[in-house]
Amino acid sequence: MQTSSGDARDLRLTYSRDELLDSGRYDAPLIANGVRCHGGFDADGAYRSPRTRHRAPAIESWQARVIGEGGALIEIDPARIPPQYPNVEQAKLLLREGVRDPIVRALTIISIVEGFGAVIRDVRVPDLERLVVEPVDGLALAHLGRGLFEAHARDEAGYRDEGGHKQMWEAARDLALERPKIPSDVLMRLMGRRPGTRSRERRFPQIDADLEAMLTTMATVLVVEVFAYDTFAWGMRLLSDPEVSADPEGAGNMVSYIRSDENPHVEYLRTALSELRLRTIRTEDGGTLPGREVVDGLLHRTLHTLTTERPQSQREELRASLAEAMQVARNPADLLERFDALQTHWKPPERTGFEPAADRNAGA
Predict the structure, then answer these.
(1) pTM
(2) How many structural domains is the chain composed of?
């Protein structure tokens, strides 16, 4: 999403909940697996994402205000995005050899995780006017509980009789792999690798607990959404390849629609967090804390965790079932050797770009 650094006084900065949830009218609906999904097509056949009639220009205005205030929008280094496992060539090899279960499982897990995205509507938005020293009127921060979180939730899981990304990923899978049989243990394995219910130690106990919880969720979701760009690229390359896809155009297009829908998620999250970096947070004891210190601290922790734990958990999950799945191949041992030879070797950069000042000064 491109931004302009025009005069903030000329920008519209306040929107109603209804406006942020408004999709406008479409000339044709998007149907996926027989389900009417969100979004649709204009007269020229171009896909238009849902709930962007006012949300998209609103985000652009808020971003322009950040720049106009002398700030900068948060950027996550693409070099920190872990590669998808299996990578495209590994996945194509498995499908060519008739080993479909690992890819069906991976695509199904993606669809289920998308459905989990609806929980963002349950994030408690505290009284930001009380907790932030500077005014928050006219900021993306002021609209989190007034449509932005709800729009995000509806995009991911659908709303009422309208499907969302969960149904769209299922459709992409079924178009490409001709409605494959879904492994019965998908949900069980997914729940087994999720972080669980252990509570995370608070990094900033001196600020309001609800505020820290909200910002932690926002930082985590932002990083996950940025990392998902690699997942979209993987899905589009794999499912649009006629060598392994029964409907390369339909499946590839479906993933491209999802990728388009995700753009506002990244943009509003990084905008709101960038706004807070320019402001001051009140502490519980009557003091203050620079917003930049809090936002960067949470992003640093999230990036460190997801770039060290996520790649390993993906590999462990697949390796646990790969040998069994490969038994349908003519020569399982040879296939595993060829599969491993195609592995992407990756190591995250030493720095996240959001290290605390003390760590930077110490050269950590």
Answers:
(1) 0.91
(2) 1
